[in-house]
Amino acid sequence: MKKQKYILLVILTLMLGTSCSENEDLISVKVGDFIYGGVVFYVDPDDDTKGLVCAIEDLGKEGAEWGCRGTDIPNANGQNYYDGMENTIAIKAACATDNTAAKLCFDYIANGYSDWYLPSRTEMNEIYENREIVNATAVDNEGDDLRINDYWTSSNRDQNYAWIMDVYNGKTTYKVKNNNFLIRPVRKF
């Protein structure tokens, strides 16, 4: 009898705990909201409780290099939504260069979150498309505007080049991996 009560207590605790955390995660958001550690810049069109936020600041005011010039990292070729984390992990695993853009994002901790990464090409383009509201929300929360400059993406092109986003004109192009460009970390929720 005592064992059955204990099992019932464990089951109820798990059910109540699970339902509370599930309810906390089911928050409808919109682009420009300051939540989940940053500014929402993308909301999944199939589920408005999922999406992406960017940090309210750039990392390394002078930027950093992508790293590993001369090394192709084929597992970092993803260019779509949610590919940035996989790219970042692949770069960090294959590249021994210190203080790369991916490593800085991977090690970043802000507003209680530590699962930041270097955005993919599509993710960085989405930040650009929503830059006015991203900038306004970031500044309202003591952060920084996106600078009119080049930002690294986590999308590898080949052994010598990776993709960047020019925030001045919205164009993506590839640059040599050992150049220093700006970094804006993102995370998914």
Summarize the structure.
With 189 residues, the protein is an alpha+beta fold. The chain is 32% helix and 20% strand. Pfam families: Lcl_C (PF07603).
Q: Can you describe what's shown?
A:
- Pfam families: Lcl_C (PF07603).
- It comes from Polaribacter ponticola.
- This is DUF1566 domain-containing protein.
- Keywords: Signal.
- Residues 94-187 form the Lcl C-terminal domain.
- The protein has 189 residues and is an alpha+beta fold.
- The protein has one domain (28-188).
- Helices cover 32% and strands 20% of the residues.
- A four-stranded antiparallel β-sheet has the order 1-2-3-9. Strands 5-6-7 form a three-stranded antiparallel β-sheet. Strands 4-8 form a two-stranded antiparallel sheet.
- A hairpin with a 7-residue loop joins strand 2 (38-43) and strand 3.
- Helix 2 crosses helix 3 (101-107).
- The chain is globular.
| Number of self-contained structural domains | 1
**DSSP helix count?**
5
Class derived from helix and strand content: alpha+beta
Ends apart, CA distance between termini:
43 Å
Low-confidence stretches: 1-24
Beta-strand percent range: 15-25%
Helix content: 25-40%
SSE sequence, one letter per element: HEEEEHHHHEEEEE
- Give the overall pLDDT as a whole number: 88
**Which overall shape is indicated by the principal axes computed on the Cα atoms?**
globular
Biggest sheet: strand arrangement? 1-2-3-9
Main beta sheet? 4 strands, antiparallel
Total strand segments: 9
Radius of gyration: 19 Å
